[in-house]
Structure formats: C-alpha cells, structure tokens
Amino acid sequence: MAKLTLIQAINDALRVAMRQDSTIVLLGEDIGINGGVFRATDGLIQEFGPERVIDCPLAESGYIGAAIGMAVNGLKPVAEVQFDGFLAPAHEQVANHLSRIRHRSRGRFTCPMVIRIPSWGGIKALEHHSESIENWYLNIPGLKMVAPSNPYDAKGLLLAAIADPDPVLYMEPKRLYRAFRAEVPEGYYTVPLGQAAVVREGTDMTVLTYGVHVHTALEAAEQAASQYGWQAEVIDLRSLNPLDLDTIIGSVKKTGRAVVVSEAPRTGGFHSELVALINDHALEYLEAPVARVTGFDVPMPYLLSEDLYIPDAGRVLEAMQAVRTY
After folding, report:
1. Fewer CB within 10 Å: N-end or C-end of the chain?
2. Which residues form the signal peptide (predicted)?
3. What's the CATH class of domain 197-325?
4. C-alpha 5 chain-centroid distance
5. pLDDT at position 126
6. How far is residue 127's CA from residue 110's CA, in Å, rounded to a whole number?
C-alpha cells in the first residue's frame, strides 16, 4: 500500500474518480498546466484533457455559477477555490443557488457538485488565505461539509463527496498537505459522510475536533496521560454536516466531560453549536461545563503572530485541566 501525503491522496482521489466516471469535470484557477496552487490537480490535464480539467479566470462567482449549471444538467463538477477567503466572492452562488436547488425544484433537480477549499491557517499566508469559513456555511441548509485530518480519509471522503447527489464543501487543512505520509489504498473506496471516528479511546473526558486540530488534540491527550494519568477520548468529527451526533453524545455520556477545539473566531462558531448539542442531549451526564478552545474575535494575524492565534496543545491541555478539576 502506497504511503501518500494528504495532497497526494486528494490528487489520487480525483484521478480514480475521473477514470471511473466521464461526467466528472474539474474547474478552477491554475488547475490545468500549473496543477493548482497546491498541486492537487497535478498531471490531470495531461491525462484527461482541457475539456475535463478547465482552467478558469480569476472569477470565483463565475466558475462556481457555471459549475452549478453543469451539475443541474448532468455533469459532476469538482471546483477548486484557491484559498478559503476566496469563496466569499461566490457566496451569492453558494447561498442562493447551489444550496437551494433540491428545495427550490421540489426535488426534481439535485446539484451533485463538490467545492474543494484549502482551509484554515498554519502556513503564515496573507490576508484572506487563512480563514475559518465553516461557520459561514454551516448556517446554510442544503450544504454538506467534510474536513479530513489524514490522507486515508482525504481520499475516501472526497470520493464519497463526489458520489453524493447533493453539494458538498470539502474543507482541506492546508497545513497538513505535506505534513506527513500515511498508507492509502489503491483504487476506489469511500469514507461515508456523516460518520465520526474515535481516534483515541479514553474515559476521563471527550475532545471533539476536526481537520488539523485532531493532531493538536492527540498531542494534548498524550501530555494529559503522561502528566496526570488522564485518558482523553479524541473524536475526529470528519463530517461537520451531517454530524455524527450518536458518536458525540455516546462518548460524552461515557466520560462526563467535554472539550471542543476549533480555530474559528470564538463568537458564533460551530464549536458553540457543539456545546449546545451536548447540553441538549447529555446535560445530566456532565460533571463540568463544556470547554471551548478557539481562535479569537480578530482576523487571522500575519506571519509569526499566527502562532499566538491558533490553538496549540498547551491551550487544549489547559481546557482539559479545567473540565477535569472543576
């Protein structure tokens, strides 16, 4: 079994899907000869040609809108947005059209389309290159959203997203693109949307997170075990919508304590929704208030200041101490 980086797993998923289904087309800026800003589409135009790997002008609203039309008329577009903040110019297409096709047509049409989005911080990029946009789109009914944390899930979730009959926002943790390698099966397989993964079992608290912060949480859990003997259960949500509520609530009922980790700004975030869901379904099992480890209510800082904004294992460990000693 090959050991791939996360970005190689994404490239492999696109190649496998396009070989299997001739209706799949890719759209985006510099995705052809250049292979994409992060090289996710490297080599695909040579194999599938410019009619299926379509270089688009610097106009996100235009090519996302074109992809919606393609999807409604029988193709399966996978659109790449170069950086998370660049989806904002296409917000009208996503919020008012992409997400509403099934509802607006009373089920006569669906929109089988994926938007791939390099997401979050950690690479010390410029403004609009390190946003946490999951909060913007989780409040729009009709959109599914996934966020892999490793190469195996990256390929399986992307293939599942492409096969889904409804639109999926595929959030890629750009900080992990080339951070490590892991075994990835050849050929076609899927990781089902809507299923979380328990990546570390424990009994003293539950840590909920997704994307790059699965690794932050695992690092903090190991520190908690070595320093205090506490065993934290870490859950990789993988799918933000649909959400695997059964796994979340089952774990919290077992441990009685929970910490939610996200680098989005603190106010109005998905992390707050997770706290509310735990209160709705497991309040009587809680031994302490649920803790949140988040970003701050400011734009992502530039360069080295980014390290002060993004949650690290030390901040997660502090939250674990708070819920464990409450």
Report:
1. N
2. none
3. alpha beta
4. 16
5. 84
6. 34
DSSP 248-312: HHHHHHHHS-EEEE--S-STT-HHHHHHHHHHHHHGGG-SSPPEEE---SSPPPPGGGHHHHS--
Query: Which are the catalytic amino acids?
Result: 129
Omega of the bond leading into 165 within 30 degrees of 0 (cis): no
The CATH number corresponding to 2-184 among 3.40.50.2300, 3.40.50.150, 3.30.980.40, 3.40.50.970 equals 3.40.50.970
Percent residues over pLDDT 90 in the chain: 96
Percent pLDDT > 70 in the chain is 100
Whole-angstrom CA distances from 51 to 22, 24, 39, 48, 55 are 11, 11, 19, 8, 9
Residues 41-94: tens digit of each pLDDT: 999 999 999 999 999 999 999 999 999 999 999 999 999 999 999 999 999 999
User: Structural domain boundaries of the chain?
Assistant: 2-184, 197-325
